[in-house]
Amino acid sequence: MITVFNSEINFNDLFKIIKSLGQPHSFGEKKSLNKLLTEVHGKEYDLTYSSSGRVSLYKILKSLNIKKKHKVALQAFTCSVVPKAIIESNAIPIYIDIEQTTLSMDFNDLKQKIQDVDVVLIQYTFGLTPKYLEKIYDLCKKLDKAIVLDKAHCMPEIINNRQTFIENNCEGIFYSTDHTKAITAIRGGICLSKKPVELNPKKLKHFK
Hints:
single chain, alpha/beta, seven-stranded mixed beta sheet, 7 helices, disordered N terminus
């Protein structure tokens, strides 16, 4: 997918994109994205849009209403804004090792630390389905741990029945629509939460 900041973009494409930014976008385009998201992830999720993927993660964590200073497990190989969003939600990041061959969360390391965490953040590194997605899901459900999917580098895609079941039975999913992502809107994020996202504007924090 060509983006404005892709170094391989040619000038004609760049001018077309700049020109399109000034054109009004129809409600139908947004509606079709909503339709795609609900078809893939089911209608149980509360779908909202955010200014960024990290804000979407923040909204999901706040919707869980877990005790203050709850702990969120995330893989060690991740973007720096992910722990930032976790900390801003008054949670504590707990880093899990990764496998060098897959860049996915290491299942054995997670098993050793999962008793101490409340939420497990499963990352689709570079948009690839995590190697141990099913094992992590089964472990979290067995121990009653909340699951959030970091699909920042993905776009809604057709997946097998087992993956569809897993993705429809998590507490939240978020995408990023930053200029480097699969769904490109220059900036922004998509938040799917099982629980309604209700944030007090007076208490919102500014992400730098």
